[in-house]
Sequence to fold (206 residues):
Amino acid sequence: MIGLLRAGKVDALSDRVRRALAAGVPAEDVLNGALIPGMRELGEDFKRNRIYVPEVLIASRAMKEAMALLEPALIGKARVSRGTVVIGAVAGDLHDIGKNLVATLTRGAGFRVVDLGVDVSSDRFLEAVESEQADIAALSCLLTTTLSTMAETVGALKEDGPDGLKVAIGGAPTTQQFANEIGAHGYAENAGEAVDMFLRLMGDGA
Ligand code: B12
Fold:
């Protein structure tokens, strides 16, 4: 599967994912055993200039199709509402694969998730946390150049957002230390830990 993902073979990869699921392979195993390692390899090659943006885009499309097939199994049958999470990638950031994964697993854990997409301004976040009566705002960024935007957005949400709103961050260049520095209530390194962190924030929640 990793080879098909990296080659961006959408149909062949989707076919393999469908067959794996039909054979009883858990969706989590497909994700953690093939798709995520595949994206990691791709990132390494991209960093070393062995591949370029078009190849990454083609592989990303295959990743998204494969994730769409896994989504029903990852979401399961959760129907209780544990709270509302408004999620998005901060302004200037167009990476959404990791954010989408966080959104999927968070839905799977029983949260209502409102996904604002990518390149989301502070104002748009503020508007959405109000109108959706969010418990948690979850911000994603993948670029070091958007870390400062993330800090500004966290500041705006804490300053002007509704009382009791929790603000959480994540994405490859972020760390717990950075979260502490910018005053975010929560940080997690990956999608699985993100769900635990959101549950913790709701437990602590106002
Ligand atoms: C795919 C990809 C792209 C695709 C994005 C497609 C898409 N729809 O997302 C395209 C080709 C568009 C792209 C463009 C660019 N990219 Co790019 N891209 C990547 C790549 C290869 C993989 C990212 C990915 O999807 N990973 C897989 C997912 C599952 O992991 P993840 O995103 O880290 O998410 C996990 C965690 O971080 C966490 N998480 C994520 N969000 C959140 C949010 C919360 C709240 C929480 C709790 C957790 C959490 O949980 C997720 C799941 O476990 C990375 C390399 C890498 N290793 O990350 C480079 C990378 C991020 N890109 C990079 C660059 C430089 C760019 C460009 C500037 C390239 C260019 N010259 O144009 C542009 C910028 C576009 C923009 N304005 O955003 C650099 C960033 C360097 C830096 N330090 O800033 C990287 C690191 C590559 C590299 N090594 O050089 N990119």
In short: Residues 137 and 167 are 5 Å apart (CA to CA). The longest helix spans residues 53-75.
